[in-house]
Structures are given as C-alpha cells and as structure tokens.
What we know:
This protein is of the alpha+beta class. It has 3 domains: 4-129, 2-Layer Sandwich (Beta-Lactamase); 132-207, Helix Hairpins, CATH 1.10.287; 212-369, Histidine kinase-like ATPase, C-terminal domain (Heat Shock Protein 90, 2-Layer Sandwich), CATH 3.30.565.10. Helix content is 45%, strand content 20%. It is built from 10 helices and 12 strands. It has helices spanning 4-20, 42-47, 51-56, 59-64, 70-85, 131-175, 179-207, 216-227, 247-263, 331-342, and strands at residues 26-32, 35-39, 90-97, 103-112, 123-129, 212-215, 233-236, 242-245, 287-292, 299-303, 345-350, 356-361. A 5-stranded antiparallel beta sheet has the order 2-1-5-4-3, with helices on both faces. Strands 7-9-10-12-11 form a 5-stranded mixed beta sheet, covered by helices on one side. A two-stranded antiparallel ribbon has the order 6-8. β9 (287-292) and β10 form a beta hairpin. It is elongated. The model is unreliable at 1-12 and 267-284 (pLDDT under 50).
Amino acid sequence: MPDPIQHQQLTERTDFHEFVDRLESVVVWSGDVSGFDYMSPAFEEIYGRPVEAVMEEMSVVIESTHPDDREMVAKMMAGADERIRNGESVREEHRIVQPDGEVRWVETRIFPLESGPGEAPEVVGVTIDITDRKRTELELERQNERLERFANVLSHDLRGPLTAARGYLELVTDEFSHWYLDAVGQSLTRIEEIISDVLALSRIGKMAETSESVDLAETASGAWQITGEDRGYLVEMDDLGTIEASRSLLGQLFENAFRNALEHGATSHSDPGGSEDALEHGSQDVTVQVGLLDEQNGFYIADDGEGIPEAEQEEVFEAGYSTSDTGSGYGLLIIREIVDVHGWDVRITDAETSGVRLEVSNVNVVPAH
C-alpha cells in the first residue's frame, strides 16, 4: 500500500510542474550537484537548446554561457555550494549564447531546499531573460559616458579660452572704461555660468546614487550662506525634519532656488516680525522662506519677488528659461532633474507674498523629534 505522505508529496510536485510548465520566458528548475531532476520547457525558449540535453548533461549550461562570462559563472557556482549549505540564496547575472549566435542576458536565483543530514543539498532555481533590461541599462551607461565626455569638453576645452579672454579683458579695462567692455565681461560671466550648470546637469545621475538622511533646515541654511547671505533675508523654520536624499544634490537644489529668487527681481518689504524660530541672514532686499507643505509630504521655497506669470509657470523647468536677463537658463532645469532622480515632484505656483513658490512634493519627510 502506497505511503500517504509520499503520495501527497508526489501530487504536490506534479501540480507544481504543471503550473510552471505554462510559464513563458521563466525557467524553473530543481536538482543537486549531480544534475537536474526537473527543468521547465521555457529553457528551450531562452537557451535555444532542448530540455533533454540539459537533463542528460549539466555542462550544457556552462557551454551555453558566453566565453567571457564562464570564469565568473564557474567561480559563482563554486562559492554557491557553501552558501546553499548555510541556507542562503544565490543571485547572479551573465550572458548566454544561443546556437544561432544570438547573445542574451539571464538572471538566475537559487534557493536551498531542506535536506537530511549527509545528503547533498537540493535547490530550486529560477532563470529569467533580462536582455531588454540589460540593453536599456547599457544604453543608459553609454549615454552617461557621452554626456560625461561632453561635460569634459565644456570644462577643459572651453574654460581655457574663456580664462584667456577674461585676462585680456582685464588688461584692456585697465586702460579703457567703456560700457561695452562691461557688457563683454557680463557675457563671459554668463558663459561660465552656463558651463558650470551643464556640468552640474551631467553629474546629477551619479551623485544621486548615494543617499542618506539629510536635515532640511540645516541644508537650506548652508545653501543660503553660499548664495544669499549678503543679498536677502531668509526666514526658515528651525525644525523641518529629515529626508532621504543626496546631500550634495539637495544643497544644489536649494542654492539654485535661492539664486532664482534673488535674481528674478528684488522688492522691498516690511520686517516679517523676527520670529524666534527664524534664521536671519544679511540685508532685506528679498525675503525667502522655507517650510513644509501642509500635507507634510514635501517642502517649499517661497519669495516676495516679482513672481512668474501663470502662463509661463509650465515652461520654467525647460532648458534656456531664465527669470532674469543674466541667468544661465539652466538653474530651474537642474532643480527638476534633481527632483526627478529622487522620484519627487515639483511645481511652480504663486506665493502668498505675491512672489514665486517652488513646491517639492511626494517626499518622505521624517518629522523632527
């Protein structure tokens, strides 16, 4: 009479195989160091080889591996045995070559199964085709490399002549004092600002890879000391909490927002009251305030400047848009890129003080304790 437990296990395994047999582009397999005891039909779809071949000889998997990846896969498999015996799972990515020469990328995850004392550890694995994802990643890497090369051209090939031009201008200015020489100097300054902003744009992606818990008020205060300490007045709440972000990029966001507020038009104002919780810096040409959104899901930067016409508020984040005649046209674009790489949202609206209010939302703000 058949063992009821063995019968139940056989039934469950049969049901499992029937389920995974229907999966496309996902190979499910099981076995131990001696070979496979199951391989789903999708193996033939991804590897271009019959299931029977790999069931008879495990080396088919290695033979299918791209020559440049075989050593890496062999090392992974050698180290995987000990990890599996310790109950750990294994994950790796590599290339395979189909019989017709087509190269594909696969990701394999191996999970240990319970085994008795002295028995070879059994595993179940899942292999999926990630070719489309890897192609996207590699194309993005190539684009970033091209952008980095372009940024280096700006930094080295253009800044050299600019430095020389500014030096000659200073020599001429010593002897002559004409308004058009001042105009040339302003143009050179604007070119330098554009170069700096384009360089900043090219490096946002890399800088965003490192994030940490960052204090909003502290970061805003540091940015104000760099950009607006001697040109305006900052009203900033003491406790804004912390967010997960790239510290340098968040600082750059505040710096660009403050520069925009200071450059698009200063207005006189009355003293806002000098709250005990406010941080005051410099003169009172422009008032800038940093605070949390009512929903506590982000922060805002508001000023009492001239404001931006409602019809233009949708295009302010485009390259070349500037709120002043001397701006580079990239400051607000940099803000949008910083927001995008963090997965946040940004918009421009009217401030209560009739100026500009820049709102960054969809941010996980951890309240200050």
